[in-house]
Amino acid sequence: MSRLREAHGLVIGEGSPGPTNSIVDVPGVLVGHCTVRAPSGACTGVTAVLPHSGDLYREKVPAAATVINGYGKLTGLPQIGELGTLETPIVLTNTLSVGTAWDAVVTWTLQRFDRADDPIHSINPVIGECNDGRVNDIRARAVAEQHVLDALDGASSTAPEEGCVGAGAGMTAFGWKSGVGSSSRRVVLDEGEGTVGVIALPNLGRSDQLSIKGVPIGDRLPGPFRADPAVAGSIVVVIGTDLPCSPRQLGRLARRAAVGIARVGATCDGTSGEFAMAFTTASPIPQGDRSMLHERRINDVSRGLDDAFAAVIEATEEAILSALFSAKPTVTHSGLECPSLPEDAVLGLLRGDSKATA
Amino acid sequence: MSRLREAHGLVIGEGSPGPTNSIVDVPGVLVGHCTVRAPSGACTGVTAVLPHSGDLYREKVPAAATVINGYGKLTGLPQIGELGTLETPIVLTNTLSVGTAWDAVVTWTLQRFDRADDPIHSINPVIGECNDGRVNDIRARAVAEQHVLDALDGASSTAPEEGCVGAGAGMTAFGWKSGVGSSSRRVVLDEGEGTVGVIALPNLGRSDQLSIKGVPIGDRLPGPFRADPAVAGSIVVVIGTDLPCSPRQLGRLARRAAVGIARVGATCDGTSGEFAMAFTTASPIPQGDRSMLHERRINDVSRGLDDAFAAVIEATEEAILSALFSAKPTVTHSGLECPSLPEDAVLGLLRGDSKATA
Amino acid sequence: MSRLREAHGLVIGEGSPGPTNSIVDVPGVLVGHCTVRAPSGACTGVTAVLPHSGDLYREKVPAAATVINGYGKLTGLPQIGELGTLETPIVLTNTLSVGTAWDAVVTWTLQRFDRADDPIHSINPVIGECNDGRVNDIRARAVAEQHVLDALDGASSTAPEEGCVGAGAGMTAFGWKSGVGSSSRRVVLDEGEGTVGVIALPNLGRSDQLSIKGVPIGDRLPGPFRADPAVAGSIVVVIGTDLPCSPRQLGRLARRAAVGIARVGATCDGTSGEFAMAFTTASPIPQGDRSMLHERRINDVSRGLDDAFAAVIEATEEAILSALFSAKPTVTHSGLECPSLPEDAVLGLLRGDSKATA
Amino acid sequence: MSRLREAHGLVIGEGSPGPTNSIVDVPGVLVGHCTVRAPSGACTGVTAVLPHSGDLYREKVPAAATVINGYGKLTGLPQIGELGTLETPIVLTNTLSVGTAWDAVVTWTLQRFDRADDPIHSINPVIGECNDGRVNDIRARAVAEQHVLDALDGASSTAPEEGCVGAGAGMTAFGWKSGVGSSSRRVVLDEGEGTVGVIALPNLGRSDQLSIKGVPIGDRLPGPFRADPAVAGSIVVVIGTDLPCSPRQLGRLARRAAVGIARVGATCDGTSGEFAMAFTTASPIPQGDRSMLHERRINDVSRGLDDAFAAVIEATEEAILSALFSAKPTVTHSGLECPSLPEDAVLGLLRGDSKATA
Prior knowledge:
homotetramer
């Protein structure tokens, strides 16, 4: 259970989370982390999200992505836009390790294909990144292919660890140590229930901007980290669902992540790379099958789609906050202490506003 | 039958046209023209394309559009992009009459809705335009709401007249009188047959650019019209099909119109407004129904989709040429003669190239 | 002065407004309203924004637009995207009057051009809309061309009236009567000062969503209007500035309006048409001049651009709230009372949260 | 000199090439190849394009890209779209080596930055690819980081070798061995002269589609390679110029590459990854400088921009053909002979059409 809600009574939004309040509440979704730390200054890692445990290349999933502010990288977007499908895991890592992760996803995918059986020639790895250079000695490029393979091979459907693990190891946000966070929401359709899950890698925001449950507390918290202003912020939001959506609709879901990001007080700074993407496990597309597809999808004018939008907004907001609440103080590669969010001060401020705790 | 193929033996591409070699070969599609001519200099009009004869607002059709060069207007694109549906006829007219046509489509749609039964409040008219100001006294704004309603009410499933009718009345292209043209191609899927139909309003191209069946004949034809170089060119291509396609796939179809346009020698000049849109009649979306949709669509990696792309390319190329071959010489509002394509000279040149006629 | 700040002490954000805290603080910008009311149920109108008082067609201004959620209409976007220029006023009106407004802008522009001198053939009117059908008898289509011309001809550089005037006459938002609102912010660059101004037409949001200064008060206010749920919401945000920006940068500014919208609690519902556009008066582009252009622009990595983004966010948030605070209770065309925001209750709630008033 | 024009008298289009008829005619532009061949089946490589010989990261160049058909990869597009700048070389290689090339560009860029002086944390490598799996044993992933560094370090301003070198080693197109090709065109503005240069990596097209100077000769040539139909085609077109263009205008240039591609008969198949990008050397953007920029740019309505569009179209067409004419027969990794274009047969067919040779 997310400590945000359980330990602190902080309830974000109106919706109901799934059993683990994380993206693995979407049936089939797996998450794996590999954290890379070394005395030399490495404090970074890899987080992998797998839409399902089957063969992702042979059972592609409908997907879409959106660029909120493009000062960053998310590989694979043109093919996702053209075909509406995702054929690999999504891997998150630091800014300078995108190439390594890309390569590792190729290795991992090819391992699953016998040359004789299926002469695979093209793979579209989807690699997102945030810049952890405030904490991590990013120029050391400590992430190796094996780290990525470890994150992929270790992925599981148990609730993912949050905070300073995997790609979250070196994140900072709003002047505090950040990490990786996750959340989920149930969505009830007339035709049955589904889940929207989010995993977020928040690395953005100035210390005076943080807002929790609408309360702007950022400039009232003592002792934030003095971030190197030359290091750009960023955030990647990955949305999974089992609701039947077309790629066009998944694009609509992805665009709603921007509302969740705005709700924590971030202002989409010009140097902040902000990306969101969404996939659904509802209608996998078999590789090589060329026959007509029969698909279900939510009606765009149904209440169900607006509920899915609300779920994205709430789960994005909660995933960001959960990353902050889960992160531990960390010594940066240059020897500074990057503090974690002072929970007591935060809760006190929220209580003072009377409406913040249940 | 298109005179291009029948009268002149000019066969464009490899595919087989439908029975009328026009967009109405797509079952259900209707086309209507209203031509507006007056001694005072009006030489313009309206062409309407209806995806089906039912209630378009209550039975929306999947649709997509693309902007090849945006120096022009095609209203309604944001909603088509967001929802992937078309809920009105597509109306083509001259550049300064878009507002009138927009208004008329609202009138026409509201006439079909009783206030008490269905409190319709929003309509997304799709109006395309080309600038007929070389021929038509465009500033007189001769198109009235009734002309648009006449085109809509007169729409039928018989093969549309081509050349200087409807929105084609004032077109010029490649230095010759142009008009409206149409063509179609059959597409054979494993699961059955379908049709791609195109209607084009070509108003673009310099006289030295015209190319027919790959033969650049533009600069070898005598006596082209000296067009006012200050008047921008443009083209609108409307693609209809009964193949089951998602809006994303219809966007892919629409983008292939650019290849057909390139094949007649046009170079996408900076001041040429070039737009294409596509709809399918295969999966209408009922207005007000909010239940889950069940849809079929072609597989993106099937041969069928590439065949549909080829059909768009060929039918666009042929529709443009058919507009030129069908147009009659016209006296412009300033008293100049705008000649039509000299058929004998064209055919001679093509024959000289030995490969041009069947 | 905006009553929000002056009368109620509600200070939105950190930035300093210009002298009138409205879009006309951008030197040269004009705003005109024409309100259309009739006993028969008309409660609608037109609001026009002119980037400058000169000849807009002959002195085009750099511009860009963004579609936040495309279930709505904003004409002219393809040409703005292709050329990066705006050549007409921006006109806002109700959903079914877009065609009339489009036509009127053509009339108004042509009036300024003698046929002999300048054979204008193409005009790209930019018309935005919100659906005022909850309040206004929208199907009566009460806006006539003369209303639009009146708004254009009456435009002035004095601070625009806010609330239920012009296009704001029939707006509702968050369960309360809304209208049109405006705000501005100063931006200080190393090279001098500039202004970002916003005019917003908010017509969106459910009653439980309203948030003011981060305090979610929507569900604690008594007696909101029971809006017809079948009528979609929407918002148009027009941003003007005199900062030197390229169209690409203006697109970045326009996209930040989404953060301001999120800050009042709106959730970008699927049926809400949400659009923003931005223009700069800094570098007009002379029509017909074909020589090389020399332009200044803010550096993308300067603090100035982020300050301009913050200005857009704050001015959008304040313009929306100002529209709400300025609106008067209105009887709808079906005889219902649409109440205005209960100021005392709002201020009490905000005071109870201690941080809301200065 | 390109053999196409010099040796065979094949003149493409109306424009005049620069001194080498290649992209290095754009002053400052460098091209480097590294070809990777091994008895084990490797037949692949790397081609690098550098906008200038200075420090690309510290002197970024305005740039834009377009996705013609997105079934492929071109990394770095979101940042190019957001900021309008290119800060690294452009590297072309095979589909499965994108990660390696990405990594190598990071290595190469970091080598130029002392940690103490300039704490670079973010780099946006631009890597394009075509699938050479018909010829190359692509799954062996023979391209190593050093190969990429060799291409980068060996880049020069002498006319680049064409055909089966660098990334062109394993290309096939229209049923024949292809490679890399380049061409250029002069553009005369009122304010002086400039150059548009293109380098193309054509790997697309079925054997029956090839068209040269408008003559469809593809199905009349004997003995094309029987390509594995499961391997998708693709093409990357890189456009450089010294004309002063904004990123928006460079996007317009890039989109015209599609016309050049259409002119050789290609049909933009659904599985063909087709990308184009453009940069200008005219207005480099200094890294770290945050002051106001003063820039010149061509007027969008000037004849100069249309001439630049025509230059892109012609140079793209000629670069594709030059790649084909320069390629040598190659034995594929599975032991098949992939023939080169039969020059005599081609020239005979073109002569038979009387118009093909000067």
